[in-house]
DNA sequence: AGCCGCGTTGTGGGT
DNA sequence: AACCCACAACGCGGC
């Protein structure tokens, strides 16, 4: 007669197969290929248990600077996700601790058959995922990951660009245009178990986090304008999509102050990916105020700055001319000073467009042909040879003949007297000699561009160039392929 | 969405 | 008719 001992029975129940879907960023049921893959796996494993998990990295909670509102957004999102999962006969299991330890525990105790997740390209996530992947590999457990956080697989785009991130807008467009159509979105998961759900062995464990647990100082919470969660997000999306005028005008953001929050991915603060060239700009309050107040002695520049100050709008090429003059062209003052003046004076100032355009024009980012220097004398002549624009905004110079109006300091004294405007008395002499200073500045730009940026920290996961053989998925073991892309 | 100097080519008037 | 010459227009490379 065989003895049945309770321990053995417990052991038997632990043998129930488990499929893990690891939620990280994509806290949603719709358009979630990794969740779909997890659910599909259940078909081949009768009575298997799905564990949708979220790991609260407690060390991160203690050290990562996240505001109260953002923590609340996460708590909201997880609660909404849990609610949706419960309606499908499952739930969210919130594990606590470092992800590697949590997976060690799970792999040891849950008879895991498959782990699925959505890829995350942030450095912290890549390092974490590589470690978890190794653990799973050692345990002989299959892992499936999917690119669904971004429209395209970043690795594929990188490969198309020789494994380098595009740093100009044109390059970015080129790369995307060769990538073809992004994959179609996936329908929401609406069913998990075909039969009645297996019993939850951890009914009272792995509960949702609370604000208190996350040390949220509730006095720092702002009004609850944007609750987190898939349900609320879809509601807002649906609502926006009914506003046809808003949508059709969205490409012209200058008409709409209430735009959707911009993505911050392009301006990542990661110090290893510094986008902005670090240039040794001068601090020169005299030059700065002369520029801002339209008394540089260059009529074309001063006329533009006068129009800006008086009327609040200047043509975009005029913006180019004065931005170049302030920064790399002549005065060698930081674009951030110019940004502040434009922000103060431009009726159409948009903080992101303004900052981006100043970086562009100063050749600090996106645009790098720094030897393309606008002349404060000849640039305006091409479209206004008689200087009518200058006459309008600088009436002191209105009587200068066309051949002197762009550089009145070259006019003979007789001409200056006849025009009723003595240079150096009635209108300033040029504060810099453009012909000389722009050459000096070219050398300074040259030096700034030659300066090697500080090397990336060691151990930072880095995209490496994949060899041609790796393109054939079937010939390369999954783990090797994964490492070649993520380690 | 630069500017300059240089060389080449084209043009028109004059000898 | 053939040639000279000044000048404009254009393309290119370097910064």
Structure description:
- Keywords: FAD, Flavoprotein.
- GO terms for molecular function: deoxyribodipyrimidine photo-lyase activity; DNA binding; FAD binding.
- It holds the Pfam family DNA_photolyase.
- The chain is α/β, with parallel strands linked by helices and about 475 residues long.
- It folds into 2 domains: about 1-150, Rossmann fold; about 285-480, DNA Cyclobutane Dipyrimidine Photolyase, subunit A, domain 3 (Orthogonal Bundle), CATH 1.10.579.
- Helices cover about 45% and strands about 5% of the residues.
- It contains 21 helices and 5 strands.
- It has helices at about 5-15, 35-45, 60-65, 70-85, 100-110, 125-140, 155-160, 170-175, 230-240, 245-250, 285-290, 300-310, 315-330, 335-345, 350-360, 380, 390-395, 400-405, 415-420, 435-450, 480-485, and strands at about 20-25, 50-55, 95, 110-120, 140-145.
- It has a 5-stranded parallel sheet with strand order 3-2-1-4-5, sandwiched between helices.
- Strand 4, helix 6 (about 125-140) and strand 5 (about 140-145) form a beta-alpha-beta unit.
- Helix 5 (about 100-110) runs parallel beside helix 6 and helix 6 (about 125-140) packs antiparallel against helix 21.
- The two termini are about 55 Å apart.
- The model is unreliable at about 1-15, about 250-270 and about 455-485 (pLDDT under 50).
- It binds a DNA duplex (15 and 15 nucleotides) through helix 13 and helix 20.
């Amino acid at each position: 007669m065989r003895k049945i001992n309770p321990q053995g029975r417990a052991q038997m129940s632990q043998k129930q197969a488990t499929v893990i879907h690891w939620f990280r960023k994509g806290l949603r049921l719709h358009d979630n290929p990794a969740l779909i893959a997890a659910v599909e796996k259940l078909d081949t494993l009768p009575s298997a248990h799905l564990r949708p998990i979220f790991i609260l990295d407690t060390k991160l909670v203690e050290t990562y600077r996240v505001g109260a509102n953002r923590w609340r957004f996460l708590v909201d999102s997880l609660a909404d996700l849990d609610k949706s999962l419960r309606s499908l006969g499952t739930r969210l299991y919130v594990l606590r601790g470092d992800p590697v330890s949590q997976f060690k525990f799970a792999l040891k105790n849950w008879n895991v058959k498959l782990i699925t997740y959505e890829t995350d390209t942030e450095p912290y996530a890549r390092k974490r995922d590589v470690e978890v992947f190794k653990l799973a590999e050692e345990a002989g457990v299959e892992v499936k990951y999917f690119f669904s956080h971004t429209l395209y697989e970043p690795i594929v785009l990188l490969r198309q660009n020789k494994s380098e991130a595009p740093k100009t807008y044109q390059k970015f467009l080129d790369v995307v245009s060769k990538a073809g159509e992004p994959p179609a979105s996936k329908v929401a998961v609406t069913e998990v178990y075909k039969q009645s759900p297996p019993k939850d062995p951890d009914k009272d464990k792995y509960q949702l986090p609370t604000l208190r647990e996350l040390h949220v100082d509730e006095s720092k919470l702002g009004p609850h304008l944007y609750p987190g969660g898939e349900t609320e997000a879809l509601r807002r999306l649906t609502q926006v999509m009914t506003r046809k005028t808003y949508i059709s005008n969205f490409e012209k953001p200058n008409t709409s102050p209430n735009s959707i929050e911009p993505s911050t991915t392009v301006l990542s603060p990661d110090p290893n990916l510094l986008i902005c060239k670090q240039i040794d700009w001068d601090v020169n309050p005299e030059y700065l105020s002369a520029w801002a107040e339209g008394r540089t002695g260059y009529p074309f520049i001063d006329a533009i700055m006068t129009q800006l100050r008086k009327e609040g709008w200047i043509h975009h090429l005029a913006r180019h001319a004065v931005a170049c003059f302030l920064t790399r062209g002549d005065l060698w003052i930081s674009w951030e000073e110019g940004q502040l003046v434009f922000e103060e004076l431009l009726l159409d100032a948009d903080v992101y467009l303004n900052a981006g355009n100043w970086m562009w024009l100063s050749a600090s980012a996106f645009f790098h042909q720094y030897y393309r220097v606008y002349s404060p004398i000849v640039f305006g002549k091409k479209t206004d040879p008689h200087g009518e624009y200058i006459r309008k905004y600088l009436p002191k110079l209105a009587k200068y003949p066309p051949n002197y109006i762009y550089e009145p300091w070259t006019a003979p004294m007789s001409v200056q007297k006849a025009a009723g405007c003595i240079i150096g008395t009635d209108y300033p002499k040029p504060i810099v000699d453009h012909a000389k200073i722009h050459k000096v500045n070219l050398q300074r730009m040259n030096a700034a561009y030659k300066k090697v940026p500080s090397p990336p920290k060691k151990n930072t996961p880095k995209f490496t160039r994949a060899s041609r053989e790796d393109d054939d998925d079937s010939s390369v073991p999954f783990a090797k392929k994964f490492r070649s892309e993520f380690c």
